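[agent] plan:
  1. take the single chain provided in the ticket
  2. run structure prediction with default settings
  3. attach structure tokens to the ticket
  4. add a short note for the reviewer (M.T.)
[agent] executing step 1
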Amino acid sequence: MVTSAFINGSPAALLLSAVLYRPSLSFSPIKLACLIIWVYLCVYFVQRVQFSRLVARDRKSMANIATLFLGPLILLVLLVLDVTKRASEERRGVFDVIKGRLQDVWASLASSGSLSSKDRSAIKLLDSSGRNITEIYGHGKGRQEDSHVLALTEQIIADALQERASDILIDPKDESTYTLRFRVDGVLRTVEQFDPDACHAVVNSIKAVSSMDIAEKRRPQDGAFVAETADGTVSFRVASAGVLNGEKLSIRVLSQNADRFKLANIGLSEKQRIIIENAVKKPSGLVLMCGPTGSGKTTTLYAMLNEIDLLTRNVITVEDPIEYVLPNASQIEVNPKADITFAKSLRSILRQDPDVICVGEIRDEETAAIALQASQTGHLVLATVHSNTNASALVRLLDLGITPLLLSSGLDIVICQRLLRRLCSNCKVPAKLTQSQMHEFRRKGINFSNIHQAEGCEKCHETGYYERMAILDILVFDNKLKAQIANNQLSMTQLRSEGDKKGRSNLKKQGLKKVVSGMTSLEELKRVVG
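[agent] step 2 finished; step 3 output follows
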């Protein structure tokens, strides 16, 4: 009876009965290799089940135990269910979903094998003169403690690049703790906490490679350094300031690959892309980008420049600082200490036979006047200004002292921009809408069946979002609008109040299209636009 119970029992019981009733087992290297592979596959697939959205959290333990015995069979079932569910949710073919999953796996393998799998020699931190951080810190013969600090500094920079961080913040939380944070997709995320001694050493090493005074910890300082990686060169801008409980360090990551920015892949609609392409193809005029800090104005500006044939047109830029290297273009960096300002650079540029002029930011009346005058004398001018809406940009230029006649004759198009985070394609789930929300969508005739919300997974670090896209409010200056501005028929008070409301409404409308298409969430739209 015991024997029949074993035979009719589990796979483990069958294995045990085979051992008991066979006097000897034949050894085979192939069988042993298959057993080892099976065990490793089972352990690996347990991890896959642990992070699967198809298994309820209260059933994870049972699923893990079952996976230890059945291994790849359970994963195959989960894979089929996941592909089928994703195909029905996204209304795509099964083969398209499988192709997308394979592309995600390939991208994940490529990213995991980039910086993190290489030793610290894969990234080198250099100062503006090209000296390595090891030479600066210890002249190549540092002690063991110094070597540990340099390795930690290089690891922080490497991790930031791997996580696609745009900013690195090192600041004191209290007297006994320093916090390391990365800004990824516009949102800060705490990465690690250090003790003061280790963090002071890291801060000093970054200040040393940035050509900053290590002894000065109270006055604000600025600096810059460069990192050489296997994928190319990346520049960093550093700013320090004395704060409560210590010294704060802010590092801005400035990627050097400007040629990868295209209007077709930043999230524009077909209509908006055509309007902007037609504007940058004109021989003259002013295209003005506006938006708050961190809204992607410079990135869109470079995407416009990439639509221009840089070999047949003389393109000159004035920036503070140069954030991206643009091949076949002349780039000038503003340096107030050397008396190189936007206005003085623009005046010298006009004597260098330019076809296209790019102004990093309009800050004063002289810069604004020169840019508008250049747009009327046969030059295409691309510029940015800090303002929240298109109407605010016009008010800003008028407040700087620009005459309505000059403004109406030189300005062609104003673009207001915001950035929305994309939902992670690996973990987004259908949104749980309230009855009032569904009633509002039905009243406006909007199909809300494809609205999704963030869930969070390992790929997106539990944020539910991965990468960002732009939403734009474009104001084209036709003859009627130009005549109204030139004749002072637009009230500044009316333009400031009603124009701002209209601008926010247009941005919200563009963002809602992204929500309905399942690209972002209602929560993200509310966070960015309000």
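[agent] step 4 note for reviewer: The first strand starts at residue 124 and ends at 126.
[agent] ticket updated
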